[in-house]
Amino acid sequence: MELQLNMGGLSSFLAVPTDVVDKYLSVASGIYIKVLLAVLRANRVDTAQIAHKLSIPESDVQEAVRFWIQNGIFTESAAKEPQKQERKPKVVSTAQSLTPEEIADRIEKNADIRFLFSAAESIVGTLLTSTQQRTLIYIHEALGLPADVILMAVEYCVSIGKGNFGYIQKLCAGWADRGVNTHALAEETIREQTLRRTKERQIQELLGLKDRPLTPEQQRYISNWTEKLGYDRELIQMAYERTLNAINKLSLPYMNSILNSWHEKGVRTPEDVAIKDARPSARSGVSGSGWAPSYDIEELERRGLNVPKFD
């Protein structure tokens, strides 16, 4: 398709070296291109000002400038760039310490990396920084995950509001440790994690904690109830209501003791709770009524929980 462009309405133009288009347009990251245009427009390098204008870290601007210097687009005196005075032999670097030149070389020679970067930018909705590029290369090369699995992890993290690349790397490291290295295994893992998060949100809402993130301790309690003990929302709600009736406030340790006690006694359904409640118990502190709590009062007291007595 050909388009006839009419630029008569533009008041000024910016000259870009042809080498940028011919040699580096396909290999330079979007950040590098933006920095190049900003430098050409200002006709000087002010990394702090450019970082502010582009809303990116100044370190990324400095890295982009070095990239264009190394490839001969910009020049700088030896006094201002002492590292150019001495050429040291290149050494093989780890993925997390790749230079901009090495990243560009990966993009040019490795179709998987090109696809990974392009698709990841579409998912996160922004151009990747060099740090983010290194993270993806590290996951691909050091952790050994294929590009499609990495992209599934990126998409999942973004969908749950945790698109930070540090979190993505941590998630992928866990997958690699567990051998989640195929599309099918990643799909199953995401399904399980989505189900787990759904249960967690339901319990969070039940407990009136939905307006703030759960603390690690709260997450451990909920994980114990839903995963280790295998209880659904109905049993957890019953324990919650009994906690409020007993101490008139939410206490996760108190609820945890009730649910652990039920689990030890083989309680699996609301009907099991009713049967336990109907059995008189000498330890309940109640006589003649036929009612006994379905949790062990002495056990709760041993755990330091103040349980009201009924006389």
Automatic annotation (TrEMBL):
Every DnaB/C C-terminal domain range: 117-188, 211-273
Family: Belongs to the DnaB/DnaD family.
Name of this chain's protein: DnaD domain protein
